[in-house]
Design a protein that fits this description.
Elements (H helix, E strand, L loop, with lengths): L3 H24 L2 H7 L7 E3 L6 E2 L1 H14 L2 E14 L2 E14 L2 E16 L2 E11 L14
Parallel strand pairs: 1-6
Antiparallel strand pairs: 1-2, 3-4, 4-5, 5-6
Helix pairs in contact: 1-2
Length: 146
């Protein structure tokens, strides 16, 4: 069984990888998003209101589509819960997302689970699943971010 200090170090590393993902997301920079993910055929991503993307090519294109249609994006996370099991970790959190798309803005509260895999001491995203929180959308906002 890993020591408490090893578990804490692994959890801190996963939190840092998660932070890098959200920084890439807010930056709307495809290169930064590519650095946050493993480029494998088994990675998956489910955006709110989308079909499941399977494989890095599909995941990369989904982020490209979002980045091309979004002028500005702000994400604030709360309640991050991280667990590490060997070389796999998952982080669940709530996301408050606000996006500027063309001349409008949208805000939504999303439950997210981000799964990370460690290889060569590097944690990167392998799977992301998001679900909008019905009835908990910020007042005056629409109900989707796309």
């Amino acid at each position: 069984m890993p020591s408490v200090s090893r578990v804490a170090a692994d959890e801190a590393a996963v939190l840092a990888a998660n932070d890098a993902f959200y920084q890439a997301l807010e930056s709307l920079d495809p290169a930064r998003m590519e650095a946050a993910w493993w480029h494998e055929e088994w990675v998956c991503c489910l955006h709110p209101g989308w079909d499941l993307m399977v494989g890095w090519a599909a995941v990369r294109e989904s982020w490209g589509s979002i980045f091309r249609s979004t002028a500005q994006l702000s994400v604030s996370i709360s309640r991050p819960l991280v667990r590490v099991a060997g070389d796999v970790a998952w982080l669940s959190c709530l996301e408050q997302m606000t996006a500027t798309v063309e001349t409008d803005f949208t805000s939504i509260l999303v439950e997210a689970t981000n799964i990370f895999v460690r290889r060569n001491r590097a944690w990167r995203m392998a799977h992301r699943h998001t679900t909008p929180m019905p009835g908990r959308v910020t007042s005056g906002a629409t109900e989707s971010v796309q």
